């Protein structure tokens, strides 16, 4: 019981750290759409090293929140503490220039333990999305002369989950996650008229507060083909859901003097208007299917496919306010395919190198963003890594490296090199001592 109290205290403090560090410091212009950009599942090293393969992955010393049925593989006497760190090095390129930046984050934190022999549970916190961008567009012409429009935004959304996995017989397990999404996103647009005395500089600001519950479900089935080979099938489902979010907006004109801005006139809210209003956040239906073939203590090859009517969450501002106008983002079918292969470590091998698991994988995501029907922004990437066993194989240290490319050089391209490290600590708890 003393161990449990100590671990819960550490978990709560680490959760506060994740919430504080979830906001990415990288300038990501595409994060202005929806609720921002997401790196899931690639902020978890065990997923990144396999190119995002997650639906059939389970084990007695790991936590996989992407298929809640995987929790059922936890041993009845085990307590798992899993935490990961990531470092992203990003290069932004357009036809004229490039920009490099780097940032590190506490990627996720999770615990898992058994409630009964057939019921296992997990608690964890993951950053769901990041918003961090600032860009300026300059237009010359018309009655205003030169006008600079600056777009800026910061914030993010985190996902706190409670997951449960259930053993249904020897080969089938099912599970579900109850998720609490929370965060705040602040966005702004500033209009700066350089040459005109008839047009006043103005700014639009909006803060979106997100506090919502969602659910997702999973199934995992393994079928031995013979003494050497096992086929695993994973299925996940996230239902469509309409969520409500709270917006608070402000629109005003201003003048600049000695580098300082002075508010001249408030346009919104007016005398009879409320600055706070309710908007809509729509979660798409998401279906995931995974297949893997493993040869015992030798190798494993796996494929994941994910389909959704669109990528991420669809944000729609209240029609009566529409402070920011209509978004240029189009919504189209989203599909991600991942392929991974592992050389499985043999926990009974005498040589340490033979107990190490080596992994590699690749993925391609189609329809990640549609700026218009002719500009579909896809993503692809590769990853590799290794799992180093510790404490006689019950715990592991996982190290990953991956590269991904998103966007186009004609518009804007993201090249991301990521490194991750995670520790899956598997302790023996809940065991009754026997005395002679």
Written overview of the protein:
- By secondary structure, this protein is mainly beta.
- The chain is built from two helices and 18 strands.
- It has a 14-stranded antiparallel barrel with strand order 1-2-3-4-5-6-7-11-12-14-15-16-17-18.
- The longest helix is centred in the N-terminal third of the chain and has 20 residues, at 2-21.
- Residues 18-23 have low confidence and may be disordered.
Please give the count of helices.
Answer: 2
**Sequence stretches where pLDDT stays below 50 over 5 or more residues:** 18-23
Question: Strand content of the residues, in percent?
Answer: over 45%
| Percent range of helical residues | under 10%
Provide the structure class.
mainly beta
Q: What is the number of beta strands?
A: 18
The pLDDT mean sits at 88
N/C terminus separation: 24 Å
- The coarse silhouette is elongated
Gyration radius over CA: 24 Å
Instruction: Give the SSE order as H and E letters.
Output: HHEEEEEEEEEEEEEEEEEE
Within the largest sheet, what's the order of strands? Answer: 1-2-3-4-5-6-7-11-12-14-15-16-17-18
| Quaternary organization | single chain
Largest sheet, strands/sense/barrel: 14 strands, antiparallel, barrel
